[in-house]
Amino acid sequence: MLFNPSRDEVxxxxxxxxxxxxxxxxxxxxxxxxxxxxxxxxxxxxxxxxPEEAMTKEFPVEDGQTNPFLHMSxxxxxxxxxxxDQPPGIRNALTLxxxxxxxxxxxxxxxMQCLGEMLYNAQKYSKAPDVESYLxxxxxxxx
Length: 143
Hints:
This protein has 143 residues and is mostly helical. It has helices spanning 7-23, 29-39, 45-48, 51-56, 68-84, 90-99, 104-124, 131-142.
């Protein structure tokens, strides 16, 4: 996957992973990770079965719709951050959150709230992401 993929590239990546899942063809390590998160989100499978619609569908927040591609991308971002401990301390913060949660998936959804808040604030105020606030948010959620 690319470091700064376009919307279409992200969507195509997940559609390709879903196709490989259906065809049982080999996957790269990143695709395997995406595959695991796709399987944990059966509510997205129907859309992934309709690639033409998946590539063009809008998911307006105003309508209360979750963008499945953004959601799964955030799962992958958290996994990547944890695997390389970037930002420093994220591995410990996420590990603690996972240990204190009912399950790993739920813990990652809590972490997504922190990640989303950090990215929203960075964009809203046109500044670099506040890593300290991000880690503090994760620690608060871990209790």
